[in-house]
Specification:
- The structure holds three protein chains of three kinds.
- By secondary structure, chain A is α+β, with helices and mostly antiparallel strands.
- Chain A has one domain: Folate-binding fold, CATH 3.30.2270.10.
- In chain A, strand 5 and strand 6 form a beta hairpin.
- Chain A is globular.
- The two termini of chain A are 24 Å apart.
- By secondary structure, chain B is of the alpha+beta class.
- In chain B, helix 5 runs parallel beside helix 12.
- Chain C contains four helices and ten strands, in the order E-E-H-E-E-E-H-E-E-H-E-E-E-H.
- In chain C, the strands form two sheets. Chain C has a five-stranded antiparallel beta sheet with strand order 1-7-10-9-8. Chain C has a five-stranded antiparallel beta sheet with strand order 3-4-5-2-6, with helices on one face.
- Chain C is an alpha+beta fold.
- In chain C, a hairpin with a 4-residue loop joins strand 9 and strand 10.
- Helices cover 19% and strands 32% of the residues of chain C.
- The N and C termini of chain C lie far apart (74 Å).
- Classes of the chains: A alpha+beta, B alpha+beta, C alpha+beta.
C-alpha cells in the first residue's frame, strides 16, 4: 500500500485514495495535426509503454482529495516517490530529487 | 474431571514454576470429548501437558502420532480445532489457544479416533509415499484424477471448516503511528521506551496475551534484578504514557509497501463472553508507520535425528517455558540434547523445579560457556561429543521409553558405543533463528551469519529496523543497548526530536557469556540402513531429510523448487521450525553452502488470519455497497424483484401475487405499448458542464456535434475511447449557451465524469469548462406509453406537454404538482415518452403523485427487464450488451451519429485504423428464430458451418434475446460477421446442450420501423 | 396543488430505535441545503463576487472551512467549494451567487439533495470513524473546521470536524449510499467494540 502526497492540495494518503494513470508524457498526435497521424504514431500513442527498472514518470490523480491530476517520478525498484510535479509541467531533469530545483516550463498538452 | 498429574507445585525448588497461573481457580475444558481441567493462564497445550496428554494429533501424510513441540507461533504439530458449530475453527495452534471455561477442542487428521487411526497404515507404506508422490502417482489416466482427488482430499488435509454461518462479528481499524514496535519482549519494550521518551507516537504489538517475551525464561539480569521486574515497571510506564498504545494478542501478520502493516487483534478468542457485549472476535488493523522497529525475537530450531517427531520430543525453550510459566512438567524424566549453550538454561530451570533430568547431551566436544559451567556446578550430568541418535517408544510410537546416545562427529557415520538412557521426554535445541519473516515481506534481504548459523536481516528499502534477537543479537546487554538506541534513532527520524540521550538512559544488563554453537543438520541413526528411522525436518508437512535428498537426486537445485516438490515449509507454520534445518540437510545433498542455496521467500501472513477478519464489517447486509434510488421503499413495498446494476439495486420487474417473472415482464411491456408505464430511471448518469468552452469539449468527446445544438434541445451522442470503441451513450441537453446537461449510462456516471476531468486537466487544460456530476441530485422517472401526455396533463403545473409546444428531443424546466422539475421528451421505448427529474428528496413523493395521476390511465410501474425488451423491439442498443469494448459505432450501424466533418474527437483517428475500417467486421443485426417460441440464450455463438462437434468456425454471437409480447414471438440482436450483407440468411446456433437453433438474419428493428409511435 | 413532501435520505429510519449500546450518537442532519461552487482563486473578480454573495471568504487553505451566520463553506478542491445553507434559503442564495458571478468563469450548482449528512458525535467519534477510513483523525491537524474528502467504508465521502467537546464529525455521503453507511456505523459503534487508541491504558499483563 503505497503512501502518496498530492502536490496540488498536500493531501497525504494511501494508494487507494489515488488513481494511477500510468506512464506520463505521452503526447497525443491527433491534438497536434489530426490529419497527419501515421498508423505507427497512433499505435505508439495507444499501446507502446516503457517498463523501466528504476525511475518511472507517471500520472496520478488525487481521487479522494482535490481530484486533480499530477505527475510523479517513482522508482519501480524501491517504490519510492522521488518527486512530484504539476500535470502541465514537462519532465524534470532525470533523477532530480527535488522538483523545485528543476526548471520546468508550463507547456500545454504536456500531459497524457 | 480428572486431575492434573504433571502439574508442578508452585513453590518447588528455587525457580518460578507456573508464574502466570491462577491456581486458585479451575476451569473446565474438553479435548476429543474428554472433560479436563486447567487453570486461568493455561493454554490448551499446557493444560494437556498438565493432564498427561502427550498425543495431540496425527501427522499430515503418514498419520504418525504427534505431540506438542513448541510453546508459541512456531508450533507445527499441535493443531487442533476449537469451538463448535458456527464457531468451530480448525488448525489452531494449541500452544497459542488460551484456555477458557467450557472450551471445546478436538484433535485433527485422524479417523476414527486419535489413538486408533486408520491412516497410520500410510506410515507402514511410507516407502511408497516419497517426495512428489502425488505428482508421480496420480498423473494418469487424466480422467481418473476426479476419482483420486475425492479420496486424497478426505485422507489428507488439516482440520475441517465450519459449515454453519459464523455468528461472530469482525471489524477493521486504521491507525497511524510514528514508530510501530513489533514484539513486546525486552528488546521491543526497550525500543518503545526510548522512542516514546523522544516524543514519538508509539504502538507496541505482541502476539501473546502478556508482554515480556522470553524475559521469564532466559538467562540474565536487568539492573541486577530478574528481567520480569524490569518488564513490569516498563510496561506500567508505557501504559501510563499518552503517546503509547500497547496491544497484546495481536500479530503483525504482514508488512507491505511504505510501512503499511496488517495486524490481527484477537479480541474475544480468550473470552468468548466479550462477544455478547458487542466486541468483534477479531479486529484487523491497518497501520501506517513512519518507522518500524522489528523486535520479533528468534525461533528455536529442533535437531534432526531418527524419530525426532515422537510425542515427548520438544524444543528446549518450550520445556522450560512450560515449567516456568505454566507450572507443568513435560514428563517424568528428561534428556536435553543440544549444540549450543542456551539449552543449559532449560537443564537448570528443570532441575530447579525438581523435574528429574537424566543427562544433557551436547554434540560439542568442549563446550565452555558460563551456563555450561553453572549446570555442571549444579550437579547436572553433561556428556559431550555425543548425540541422541534415536528414540525408543511404546504405545505405537506415542510414548517415549528411552533414547539412544552415541559419540557424534559431524559428517561421519555414528560409531562407538551406543548407550540407552531411560526418559520420557527430550528437550532439543539446534540453535536459534531470528524471526525475519516480517523483515522479508516487502524488500528486506537476509544474509547468513556463520557464527549464529542462521539468516539475519541485512538490508531493506523500507524504514524497518531489526533489533535484539530478531537481529541476531542475543547477549542481553547488547540487545537492550541496540534496542534502546534504535528506538531513539527512529523516533528522531520520524518526529525530529532533539532529546539528548546519554548512556544512563538505558538499563544495564548482564547475562552469562555463551560459548560457540556447533551446527548440526543431521544425526545419522545407528545400524546398516536408516529404514524406518525417519528424520523429520518439516513436521507439519511430514518432510524428512530423505525426501530432501531424494529431491536433490532427482535433479532439483533451486530451494524454491524443492520447497514446492516436497511441500517443505508450506501450510500454517510456513517453515518456522524447518527452514534452516532443511537448508542444512541440502548442504550435504547439493554439495553447496547455505548462503549459496539461499532461502525460500517469506510471505505474509506470519501466522494465519481469519477470513472473518479480512471481511471485517462487510458481511451480511453490509457485504456489498448497495445504492438505493429515492423511491426504493416503494419498490420494496410493491414486491419489486431487484437486480444489481453495479452497486445500484433496480427493480427488475414487479410481480403481482401469483405472477411469474415472465408474466410480470409481459404485463409491464404491454402496459407501456398500450397504456402507460412508469420507470425509475434515477440511476441514469447526470453531469452538468458549464463554461465558455463547454460546447467545444462536447464536440471533442462525442462522435457527433453538439456546438450546433439549440438551447432547450437534446441530442443523442456516442462516446468512444481513444481506441475507437464505443464506451458510453446518452442524450445531452443544452440548458444555456455555455451550460449543458449530459446523460450517461447508469454504469458510466462516475467513470465519464472522471474521463471528462482527465481530458480537461491533462490534454485540454486550455478549455474553460467546469464539470459537476449531479446524478444523485435528481430522481428521474420515465413516463412512457400512449397515455403519457394525459398523465402529465392530469397534474397541476406550468409545463405545456402538448405535441406542438413540447417537441421530441427537447426539455423544459418548471413545476409539476408543486415539485420543481426538469422535463425531457425523449424515448427509449419508441413510445410517446417523457422523463421527469426532480430533486431527490422529492423523488419518492413525485413518484407517488405520478402513479396517482395515472391511475385512470392504466399506469403501471415497469422494471429494467421490460425496459430492455422495449428498447430491443425498437432495435436500440445498450452499451455493454451490444458493445463489449471491441465494437465501433459503425459495427452497430450508428454511422449516422459519427461526424465526418469534425477534425478531431476522441477515437476518430483510431476508427481509421485498418482493422477497424476493414469490411466484414461483425455487425449488428436482428435475428428471428425459426421456431418463434424459442428464445436464444444471450451469448450463443453462430457458426459458419455446423459440424458434429467443435471446433466450428464462429461468426458471431447473440448480444440480446427476449420474448417480445408486442410482436408475439422471440426476438434477438446479434453481432454477425458481415451481417448487414447477409439479411435473409439462416444461421446455426449450436447450444451447450447439443441443441441447434436456426435463426434468420433480419433488420434489428422489430417494431414501428417508421417511428410513428413516439411522434404523437 | 398538493403539499410538497420532503423525504431526506434517512427519513425512513428516523423512527427506528437506535441500539442502546452505541458508544457515539448518530443523527442525520437533513436541514442543510448545498451548493457546489467552482471558480479560480486566481481570478479576483470571481473571489470578490463569491465573497460578496456568500458574506464569508472562500476557504483557500486545503481541508478547511469557513462559517458565517447560517452559511458554511467547505473546501472541496483548489477550485471547488461546498456551500451549505439552511434548507429553503438555497434558491435565494443561488440566485444571488449567479447574479454576482455574472460572466466570470465559474459555476454554482444546487446539489442540496445529492448528499446527506450523518453526524457522529461523542468521545469515541474519532475511533469509530477510523474503523472506516485510513485518514488519521487523531492528528493534531484535525481541529474544528477541518474538512477532508475521503474513502469511508469503501464509499466516497467528505468529513468535517464540526467542533470538540464532545467531538462532532459530519460525514457527507452521497444520498444513495446513506442506508449502507448508516448500517455500517451501527455495526462498528457498539460499546463492546470500543477502541481507545493511545492515551493512558490499563497496563497489559506481563
Amino acid at each position: 500500500m503505497l503512501m502518496i502526497t498530492c502536490p496540488v492540495c498536500g493531501a497525504e494518503g494511501d494508494e487507494t485514495d489515488f488513481h494511477c494513470g500510468g506512464q506520463a508524457h505521452i503526447s497525443r498526435p491527433a491534438s497536434t495535426d489530426p490529419h497527419n497521424v501515421s498508423d505507427d504514431a497512433q499505435r505508439d500513442y495507444l499501446y507502446i509503454r516503457n517498463n523501466p527498472k528504476g525511475l518511472h514518470r507517471e500520472m496520478w490523480m488525487c481521487a479522494r482529495g482535490c481530484g486533480k491530476w499530477f505527475h510523479a517520478e517513482r522508482d519501480t525498484v524501491t517504490l519510492e516517490f522521488k518527486s512530484y510535479y504539476g500535470i502541465t509541467e514537462s519532465a524534470p531533469p532525470s533523477s532530480s530529487p527535488n522538483p523545485a530545483a528543476s526548471k520546468t516550463t508550463k507547456k500545454k498538452s504536456a500531459g497524457r | 474431571m480428572s486431575g492434573q498429574p504433571y502439574r508442578l507445585p508452585a513453590n518447588v525448588g528455587s525457580g518460578t514454576t507456573g508464574r502466570i497461573l491462577d491456581r486458585s481457580r479451575r476451569i473446565a475444558f474438553s479435548f476429543d470429548g474428554k472433560s479436563l481441567s486447567g487453570h486461568p493462564g493455561d493454554t490448551v497445550a499446557s493444560a494437556l501437558f498438565a493432564n498427561g496428554i502427550r498425543l495431540v494429533g496425527r501427522s499430515f501424510k503418514y498419520h504418525r502420532p504427534r505431540g506438542v513441540i513448541g510453546s508459541g507461533a512456531d508450533e507445527p504439530n499441535a493443531l487442533i480445532s476449537v469451538g463448535e458449530s458456527g464457531r468451530h475453527e480448525p488448525n489452531q495452534r494449541a500452544t497459542q489457544v488460551e484456555l477458557y471455561d467450557g472450551l471445546v477442542s478436538k484433535s485433527q487428521n485422524n479417523w476414527p479416533n486419535l489413538k486408533f487411526d486408520i491412516g497410520q497404515i500410510n506410515s507402514k507404506f511410507s516407502r511408497l509415499i516419497p517426495a512428489g508422490f502425488y505428482y508421480k502417482t496420480f498423473m494418469w489416466p487424466q480422467s481418473a484424477w476426479m476419482f483420486y482427488e475425492h479420496f486424497i482430499r478426505n485422507a489428507a488435509g488439516l482440520g475441517t471448516a465450519a459449515s454453519e454461518p459464523d455468528p461472530d462479528t469482525y471489524e477493521h481499524m486504521h491507525a497511524t503511528c510514528d514508530v510501530l514496535v513489533v514484539g513486546g519482549g525486552v528488546a521491543g519494550l526497550a525500543a518503545a521506551q526510548s522512542a516514546a521518551a523522544a516524543g514519538a507516537r508509539v504502538m507496541v504489538v505482541d502476539e501473546c496475551a502478556r508482554l515480556g517475551g522470553l524475559a521469564d525464561s532466559s538467562s540474565g539480569l536487568i539492573e541486577s534484578s530478574p528481567q520480569t521486574e524490569w518488564v513490569q515497571s516498563t510496561v506500567s510506564t508505557l501504559a501510563a504514557a499518552e503517546n503509547v498504545h500497547l496491544m497484546t494478542r495481536t500479530i503483525a501478520a504482514g508488512h507491505y509497501h511504505h510501512n503499511w502493516c496488517l495486524l490481527l487483534e484477537r479480541v474475544t478468542d480468550h473470552d468468548p463472553s466479550l462477544a455478547i457485549q458487542g466486541a468483534p472476535r477479531h479486529r484487523l488493523w491497518k497501520v501506517r508507520a513512519n518507522q518500524i522497529v522489528m523486535a520479533t525475537g528468534a525461533l528455536e530450531r529442533p535437531l534432526t535425528f531418527a524419530n525426532n517427531d515422537r510425542p515427548g520430543v520438544l524444543l528446549a525453550s518450550a520445556a522450560r517455558i512450560y515449567v516456568n510459566r505454566y507450572g507443568v512438567s513435560p514428563g517424568r524424566r528428561g534428556v536435553v540434547f543440544t549444540n549450543n549453550d542456551d539449552a543449559y538454561q532449560t537443564a537448570l530451570d528443570l532441575t530447579r523445579a525438581g523435574v528429574p533430568l537424566a543427562r544433557v547431551v551436547d554434540v560439542r566436544t568442549d563446550p565452555r560457556g558460563e551456563l555450561v559451567e553453572e549446570a555442571r556446578a549444579a550437579g547436572i550430568e553433561v556428556v559431550t561429543g555425543m548425540a541422541v541418535t534415536n528414540v525408543d517408544t511404546v504405545a505405537a510410537g506415542a510414548k517415549i521409553q528411552s533414547v539412544k546416545v552415541a559419540p557424534y562427529k559431524a559428517g561421519s557415520r555414528i560409531g562407538g558405543r551406543e548407550e540407552r538412557i531411560e526418559c520420557d521426554f527430550v528437550a532439543v535445541s539446534g540453535g536459534w533463528n531470528p524471526a525475519v519473516h516480517l523483515y522479508c515481506h516487502t524488500s528486506g534481504k537476509v544474509k547468513f551469519d556463520e557464527d549464529l548459523q542462521s539468516f539475519k536481516p541485512d538490508r531493506s528499502f523500507d524504514q524497518i529496523t531489526p533489533v535484539g534477537a530478531a537481529n541476531g543479537t542475543y547477549d542481553l546487554d547488547g540487545l537492550i543497548s541496540e534496542a534502546s538506541n534504535t528506538g531513539a534513532a527512529v523516533a528522531k527520524k520520524a518526529v525530529g526530536s532533539k532529546v539528548k540521550r546519554s548512556k544512563s538512559d538505558r538499563p544495564l544488563a548482564s547475562s552469562p557469556k555463551a560459548g560457540k554453537l556447533e551446527p548440526v543438520w543431521f544425526v545419522p541413526a545407528t545400524g546398516a540402513l536408516n529404514e524406518g528411522n525417519k528424520h523429520f525436518v518439516d513436521f507439519q508437512n511430514d518432510v524428512t531429510a530423505a525426501d530432501l535428498e531424494l529431491a536433490a537426486r532427482e535433479g532439483y537445485r533451486s530451494v524454491e523448487h524443492i520447497k514446492r516438490y516436497t511441500t517443505l515449509g508450506m501450510a500454517t507454520d510456513q517453515g518456522k521450525t524447518s527452514n534452516i534445518n532443511a537448508l542444512g540437510v541440502l548442504t550435504g545433498a547439493l554439495q553447496s553452502a547455505i548462503p549459496q542455496i539461499g532461502t525460500t521467500t517469506f510471505r505474509p501472513p506470519y501466522t494465519p488470519i481469519s477470513f472473518g477478519a479480512i471481511a471485517g464489517t462487510n458481511a451480511g447486509n453490509r457485504f456489498l455497497v448497495v445504492r438505493r434510488t429515492p423511491p426504493y421503499e416503494w419498490h420494496c413495498e410493491n414486491r419489486a424483484d431487484f437486480e444489481p446494476i453495479g452497486q445500484w439495486r433496480r427493480p427488475y420487474c414487479y410481480p403481482k401475487p401469483g405472477d411469474s417473472r415472465h408474466d410480470a415482464i409481459n404485463r409491464e411491456i404491454l402496459s407501456v405499448r398500450n397504456e402507460v408505464g412508469l420507470l425509475d430511471a434515477s440511476t441514469l448518469g447526470k453531469i452538468e458542464l458549464k463554461g465558455p468552452d463547454a460546447a467545444k469539449l462536447l464536440d471533442r468527446v462525442y462522435t457527433n456535434t453538439f456546438s450546433t445544438l439549440k438551447v432547450g434541445k437534446g441530442r443523442y451522442g456516442l462516446m468512444l475511447n481513444e481506441e475507437g470503441f464505443l464506451m458510453d451513450d446518452g442524450v445531452t441537453v443544452r440548458l444555456a449557451d455555455d451550460h449543458f446537461l449530459m446523460h450517461t449510462t447508469s454504469g458510466g456516471a462516475d467513470r465519464i465524469a472522471g474521463w471528462l476531468e482527465e481530458w480537461l486537466q491533462t490534454e485540454w487544460s486550455d478549455l474553460k469548462v467546469y464539470v459537476t456530476p449531479v446524478t444523485e441530485q435528481w430522481a428521474q422517472f420515465a413516463i412512457a406509453g400512449p397515455n403519457a401526455r394525459n398523465v402529465l396533463e392530469n397534474l397541476d403545473g406550468d409545463i405545456d406537454f402538448s405535441a406542438d409546444s413540447f417537441e421530441f428531443m427537447s426539455m423544459k424546466v418548471g413545476r409539476l404538482t408543486g415539485y420543481p422539475v426538469r422535463a425531457f421528451r425523449i424515448s427509449f421505448s419508441g413510445e410517446l415518452s417523457y422523463e421527469i427529474a426532480t430533486p431527490s428528496n422529492f423523488g419518492h413523493s413525485l413518484w407517488l403523485a405520478l402513479l396517482e395521476a395515472g391511475e385512470n390511465h392504466g399506469i403501471q410501474a415497469y422494471g429494467t427487464e421490460a425496459l430492455h425488451v422495449l428498447r430491443a423491439e425498437k432495435g436500440f442498443i445498450v452499451v455493454g450488451d451490444e458493445s463489449d469494448g471491441t465494437v465501433t459505432p459503425l459495427d452497430l450501424g450508428l454511422g449516422w451519429a459519427v461526424s465526418k466533418k469534425k477534425d478531431d474527437y476522441i477515437g476518430k483517428r483510431s476508427l481509421e485504423r485498418a482493422y477497424l475500417a476493414a469490411p466484414k467486421r461483425k455487425q449488428l443485426v436482428g435475428l428471428l428464430t425459426q421456431d418463434p417460441q424459442e428464445v436464444l440464450p444471450d451469448g450463443a455463438y453462430a457458426v459458419a458451418e455446423l459440424k458434429d462437434k467443435p471446433p466450428m468456425e464462429m461468426i458471431g454471437q447473440v448480444t440480446s434475446a427476449y420474448w417480445s409480447p408486442t410482436v408475439g414471438r422471440s426476438i434477438a440482436m446479434a453481432l454477425i460477421k458481415d451481417g448487414r450483407n447477409r439479411l435473409g440468411d439462416v444461421v446455426d446456433f449450436p447450444l451447450d446442450n447439443g441443441k441447434v437453433v436456426k435463426a434468420t438474419i433480419v433488420d434489428p428493428v422489430f417494431y414501428d420501423k417508421e417511428g410513428a409511435k413516439q411522434n404523437v | 396543488m398538493s403539499d410538497l413532501q420532503f423525504r431526506s435520505a434517512l427519513s425512513h429510519r428516523r423512527d427506528e430505535d437506535l441500539p442502546m449500546d452505541l458508544c457515539v450518537s448518530l443523527d442525520e442532519v437533513s436541514d442543510r441545503a448545498m451548493i457546489d461552487l467552482r471558480g479560480s482563486l486566481d481570478d479576483p473578480k470571481f473571489v470578490a463576487a463569491a465573497t460578496a454573495a456568500l458574506g464569508v471568504a472562500l476557504p483557500a487553505q486545503p481541508r478547511s472551512s469557513s462559517v458565517k451566520g447560517d452559511i458554511t463553506v467547505l473546501w472541496m478542491s483548489v477550485d471547488q467549494w461546498l456551500v451549505t445553507t439552511p434548507r429553503g434559503s438555497e434558491q435565494a442564495l443561488l440566485s444571488k451567487l449567479v447574479k454576482r458571478l455574472g460572466n466570470t468563469f465559474s459555476f454554482a450548482c444546487d446539489v442540496s439533495d445529492a448528499r446527506t449528512i450523518i453526524r457522529v458525535s461523542g468521545g469515541d467519534a474519532r475511533s469509530v470513524l477510523m474503523k472506516g477510513t485510513s485518514v488519521d483523525l487523531q492528528s493534531p491537524v484535525v481541529k474544528p473546521g477541518w474538512v477532508r474528502r475521503l474513502l469511508f467504508a469503501e464509499v466516497a465521502a467528505a468529513c468535517q470536524f464540526v467542533h470538540s467537546d464532545p467531538d462532532t464529525f459530519d460525514v457527507y455521503v452521497f444520498r444513495s449510499y446513506a442506508d449502507y453507511v448508516w448500517e455500517w456505523l451501527l455495526a462498528v459503534a457498539r460499546k463492546g467494540a470500543r477502541v481507545q487508541l493511545y492515551g493512558k491504558q490499563e497496563p497489559p499483563l506481563v
